[in-house]
Structures are given as structure tokens and as C-alpha cells.
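agent: user wants the structure for NmrA-like domain-containing protein from Fistulifera solaris. delegating to structure tool.
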Amino acid sequence: MSLLKKTQKGLADIIPGLGRFTFDADVGKVFVTSGTGVIGYRVAASLLEAGHKNVRVGVWKGDRGKIPGGGDKPFVDGLVAALEEKGAEVVDFDWTDAACYDTVLQGVNTVFCSLPNLDDWASVFPAFLLKCKDMKVEHFIKISFLHNKAGMVYREKVPFVQFHCTCDDLLEQAPLNSRISYTILCASHLMTTPLLHQGDLLRKEHKFVTASYGMGVNYVSPNDVADAAVVVILNRKEHRNKVYNLTGPGPITDAEVCKLLSKAYQTEIEHVSLGYHDYVKSVKKRGLPTWLVKDSATFEKIKASGIDEMKESYSKDLEKLIGRKPETFEGYFANTEAMRPGIKFP
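agent: tool returned. relaying C-alpha cells verbatim.
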């Protein structure tokens, strides 16, 4: 089980890691920057289902009504309705529109941030962080990529990881001149990522395309990352100014993932293993943005180096936070109650 279904009184039964910490009852208002994302939705829903109703959820207004799915309703609108039904305050939020910062941060004690790729991130993130300081936000929790040895390799070569880690550097400086404390949750490759990037291929062509050359990949479940975030939010005093590396149960090859996809979809999915250059052509053919083509291809090249199979690429941080073993890929596929409503994956 991932999403919380009991009141705060029973949280330790759902996430055993909570049982070892002093519960901070004065959580205050929580702002989730992306309530429709794979982690943001899970965090917001978990808090609400746990009985913490003081949750404000940001939704990019450009998303509303545009993403198909969710039965007879647009996918994002369906997520908004589900969150509002649970008690969330849903607001329009646009990282690039500083005019909305005052509204979304009004009265907020804690920010949970899952940051998308932004063309102007070098000015956008500092501006948002500065506004958090001005608005007396007390704690800032951010999702990032690994800060361990493997993470350094990815940081050197993948622009998206560089961007995230630079934002992390800025966040780590925040306590020096403000009341903000931080927690950075550095996740390895999310199990959702290949499903999001290859959604049409999986659904329409029944293909799963990779270029990892049979090497194991360090995938982590978004359910586990969300649970870790909930632990931190509800016990922020224990996690102030700390960085955690959240990794999966161990390396798994993409061929193995493909077999599990076939089982989950109940249809045969073909694993297409390509070389680097052919993979680049494949990603371009899907019509993905230029930055995503470069990042996806570079991720595959680094995976193919075998670094995700190294013992040093893994951490016990996640298990210590949530009090249980990381969810396997098979467990993630089977955990349908944790998935966002209106779409099978992710």
C-alpha cells in the first residue's frame, strides 16, 4: 500500500518509518507545486487521506482540459476533481509567472517541490525561492536526482540533472540568510519515466525502446518517493537541512522490465534494444522536445556504462525513511490503488 487511507492516528501503520519519529502536529499549510505530476499527486493525496486537509495544490493552467484520458473527462481535470473531493485547495500555478507567487505561497509553512524542465530555470527557481523566503516559508522539500557517486556522473553529462543539482546548491544556501530549512530527496530513475516518455509506443505499437545494452538500471518507485516525502513533511524537525538518496531494490534490466510490462498490459510488448545513434533517431521520431531527446539519449548512454549496477549507486536512505523495503517494479505495476485516476500507467 502506498497512498494513505487512515487518519494521522494510524500513519505509523501505513508508513512504519513514522513510528520512530516525533510527530510534528504543527505542519501548517502545505503547498504542492505540481499536484498532477506522478509524485506531486501522490503526496497531496496521501496528506489529504491522512487527515491533513490544509493542502494547497498547484496546477499549471495550461494543463487544464488538454490532456486526454480519465474516461469522459480530460485527464488533468479528473485529477483536479479527485484532489478537490479529498479536500485540496487547487490553484493555478505557473513557474514562469512570478505574479502568482504571492497567491500560492500565502500562509504556506511547507513547500513540496517537484520541478519540471524550465527554459529559464536559472532565473525562475531563484525568484521562487526568494519569494518563499519573503513569505516566511519554514521548510522546502525538493525532489532531485541522486547526489551519490552515480549521480555525479549523470550531473556531468545530463543537462536536466545539472539543472536540478544547481537548484539544490541554491536551496542548501537558503538557511544561511532566511528561516527556511530544506530536505532534498534525490531519487534515482523513476519507474514512471519510461512509461511517460514511451506511452504511445507502449499503447499503440506495443514496443519498449531502450539503449542500455542489457545493463541493470537503478529504478525507484514513485510511490516510495512520495511516501518518503510524506514522512519528511509530517516530521520535518527530524529532517531539516538533510539530503537523502532514494534508490530502488537493486538493478533490473530493461528486458526484464519489458516482460513485466507485457504482464501488466496483458499484451505482448516487444523490447527493442538499439544502439545510441539509432535510439536518438527513435526519440526524435516520437516528436519529443529537443532537450528531452538529448537528455533521454544521454541517460541511456550512462546506463549502458553499467554504473547503475555498482553497489555504491544504492543507498539505505529510502528504507530508513519509510520503514520497509523499496517497492519492486512488479509491485509498482500491481499497486493500482496508488496510480493517478484516469490512466493505467503511470
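agent: one observation worth passing along. The mean pLDDT is 87.
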